[in-house]
Specification:
heterodimer; A: alpha/beta; Rossmann fold; GMP Synthetase, Chain A, domain 3; five-stranded parallel beta sheet; globular; B: alpha+beta; Aminopeptidase; eight-stranded mixed beta sheet; 8 strands; 29% helix; 33% strand
Chain lengths: 572, 163
Amino acid sequence: MIKTRIPPQNPQANLREYYKTYRTFAWSDFEMELTRSDSGKVNIVNDAVDRWAAHPEKQKQPALVFERGGKVRTFTYLDLKEQSCRWANLLVEKGFETGDRLFIFLSPCPEIYLSMLACARLGVIFSVIFPTQGFDELEWMLSNAEPRGVLTDPDLVERLSQDAMKGVDHIFLTGDVITGQFAQEIPLAGVIERMPTGFTNRAFPGETPLFLLYTSGSTGPPKGVVHAHGDMLGYVMTARYVLDLNSDSVLWTDGDPAWVTGTVYGAFAPWLIGATSVVQGAPFSASTWYRTLERHQVSVWYTTPATLRRLMEAGDDLPRRYDFSRLRHVATVGDTLIPDLFFWAREHFPRAPHDTWWMTETGMICIANFPSEPIKPGSMGKPVPGIEAAVVDRDGNSLPILTLGELALKTGWPSMLRGIWRDEERYADYFLDGWFLTGDMVIKDEDGYYYHQGRNDDLIKIEQKFLGPYEIEQVIRLHPSVTEAAVIGKGASKGKPTVKAFVKVNPGFVPSARLSHEIRAFVKANLHTDIPLTEIEFIEELPKTRSGKMLRRVLRARELGLPTGDPSKLRE
Amino acid sequence: MMSPDNRIQFVDKKGVTFEAEECGQEHYDALKQMYDEFYPKGESQGLPPPGEHDRHRWIERLLRLARNFVIWSGDKVVGHSALIPDPEERDGEYIIFVSRPCRQRGLGTALTRMAVERARSMGLVRIWLTVESYNFRAIKLYRKTGFVFTDQGERERTMVLIL
């Protein structure tokens, strides 16, 4: 497998002896650090905020540093406590109870984090929604979760479906403007400031839901992944061992809080360690990103390969103008950190980047490169302590090293999802004989390092979502010229996967280059601008079995010039 | 063809009673209703067809060419399977759909067993189907009823049951 090894970047990291720690690890070692009531109940905010706010020195430390448009708002641990208590009191005044849901549908702002904490205080399940969420998916989410309230801003109100909002009691608006689109709008300007700064947190069993995050799969509607207060055990361990956080660390996780990386490692994880979390609310630009690292003296940066690529494309001259001397650890998540990006980042930042792997459903980082261990460029790393991983075949049997198979994790780690909201069937689909099936294809090498091979050929990652042929085909079919469509993945072009569509047109339409262009533009406009649909082939009939089941594998085989299988099984 | 009096009754895992029977053209409207309400459409290798016209034509075709089996919940069809025989090959392609609220309750097993019995009575030597390789729930049903994989496909795989 990969022979290149980059020496450990920090042998003095929190996790110094990986193999010994992995073998002897027990979750109970971390449980002792966390606060429990006499009945064994917990509340994540007790440990993430309130215990620091009660400490005379610690309470003055910045907990959240939020920057947008060059303006910085800093919240100490005491500020975070007091402000989130105000929000909690508002929720109680408006009738929220434990188990109710609150949608947080905002452009980047500190109120997202304050309301998350407020919800956690009384056991309201928060769901942070991307401000760019599409109307149809948002409508589905609202119908699925039936939140008691939505926290949003006047500019986003029009994205809320009238039908789906009928059961919502409150629409909290940041600022002092009412749009008048809904009767239940409540402008919050001046309201929060009048609320008391004290609140007695409710205590819950660890399995009590904390948040609900929607994630798209390759088929069907979004899945509402449920995580619990008890997840915090995983947050603390990975914050300490993978991100190498200490109480004086300044962590910048450049991920939206609607993405699980932003929810966990942009908020709760650094706070549980007593560190400072930097949030940059501005849209990406290379200079903004470099300036953030410098201005806030970031010591740990958790970013994505996509961001590193954009920085690389912005040119090698820029990073030389900034001071990254405080940066002692860089980690990545989201896509595979390919060797090109790895070596570019290693050259331009004080430390080489450490790739990590996890997913919304796992709730915490599960596979990682550690600062005290050699890095193999292109590898996801090794399982974190407390996680047992395996490579399995389609029947669930364990495979030997250097064999492609599906990554599976032994169930029972504390941050594992607790359910799919109102869909027990989809939840059950994740598990097989005591293993959590990730859907990711990997190879494990002789040293125990894992390498990501993609989910399968046809899934395309757009931002933080995977889109499959089904979703793209659905949208193509909406074009008035299209009868049917089939989509296949075509592999990578310049490091980026592309897709090809095979389209059967309606009578009266003539296949042409112009029509191909129109359909591609239609897909970008109605699904996502980044959909890499680079090719459309017009076809008389799609290959199907006699029952009508479409066979994408035949199209892929034809595309590759390979045998297409038994023709007798195809429909005449 | 069974009359309503000849429907087989069975009790699912939750203690709810369903009725199963082989069906014909007279059940077109009931099948149409099931598939019009089916969600999500097109998820299973393009089936059931998302377009209404295509979907109704597909149902008509199955009723014409295949042996069809349905499960009733009251006066609604909630599960349907079809066996499309190929007399020359002496095999048949098998498909099955169960409405979402009624899954994980044994209906799929009941439908598949009915189809297998019919296949044997028709003198077929095997039944085959295609399934997406990550549809673990469907694969589990098929394996339980005796189907085995015949290939190592990446997206869709073929399973066969030797009769």
